[in-house]
Amino acid sequence: MNARPKKSFGQHFLHEKRYIERIVSAIAPKDGDTLVEIGPGEGALTLPLLAAAHRLTAIELDTDLIPALGERAAPIGDLRIVHADVLKVDFAALARELGASRLRIAGNLPYYISSPILFHCVEHAESIQDMHFMLQKEVVDRMAADPGSKVYGRLSVMLQLACRVVPLLDVPPGAFRPPPKVDSSVVRLVPLAPEERHDAAPDDVHAVVKAAFAQRRKTLSNALRQLLDADSIRGAGIDPGARAETLTPGDFVRLAKALPAQAAKD
């Protein structure tokens, strides 16, 4: 099956066998797993994952790819293909429908909407065991960045507050058809256990992180002036003269807890 990649869907089909094998090995699927693949494309990952787990649910938006994928999968295992925009899929409802406590999610994500998909999955973290995604290497670098890094930012903080982020391997452009103009990486995301999660209001955390990184060269006292004054920032144990890029994810939680009532909603 050599489908014509569609630029409108951001399609780059993985075809290099050695990278496929390494990715499947990293996912380590086994019989009994409830696997969900986002954007199966031509089935490069779908078929070996299905062979190991014996059943898999694939979410595919491109109707042209579905018939051939179903035919190739039929002798291998039970493949259910859901024609849908993944951003509209309720993973909690899907887990209940599949009779699973939690899902294992994988996918070679369209790079132009990778961040919205990541945040959508994080919103359903309680229904997810782990995630393995192929993304633009620059995005994975940002996701895993430590405070003080030039690429540490909003994406780093919000994902690290929800998941353990583990970069696994880099994949060159030549492993895809057509080759993208950037390097790619595979990353593992493991949602934090309930006892590891912060207890601040999610909207407050989002508001603080968004404001702090809106102009990252500004000090916190300037960047957060619409939310917190210098004394409140200092009261949270943080220097008002610091910049957002130097704060840990936990620091942002403390700032969120210092917000006066309704501040994040104004």
From TrEMBL:
Listed EC numbers: 2.1.1.182
Occurrences of domain Ribosomal RNA adenine methylase transferase N-terminal (ranges): 19-193
Gene3D superfamilies in the cross-refs: Ribosomal RNA adenine dimethylase-like, domain 2, Vaccinia Virus protein VP39
Primary location recorded for the protein, binned into one broad class: cytoplasm
GO terms assigned for molecular function: 16S rRNA (adenine(1518)-N(6)/adenine(1519)-N(6))-dimethyltransferase activity; RNA binding
Top-rank taxon, per record: Bacteria
A UniProt-annotated Pfam family: RrnaAD
Family: Belongs to the class I-like SAM-binding methyltransferase superfamily. rRNA adenine N(6)-methyltransferase family. RsmA subfamily.
Function: Specifically dimethylates two adjacent adenosines (A1518 and A1519) in the loop of a conserved hairpin near the 3'-end of 16S rRNA in the 30S particle. May play a critical role in biogenesis of 30S subunits.
Annotated PANTHER family: DIMETHYLADENOSINE TRANSFERASE (PTHR11727), DIMETHYLADENOSINE TRANSFERASE-RELATED (PTHR11727:SF7)
Protein name, UniProt field: Ribosomal RNA small subunit methyltransferase A
UniProt source species: Dyella thiooxydans
Gene name of the record: rsmA
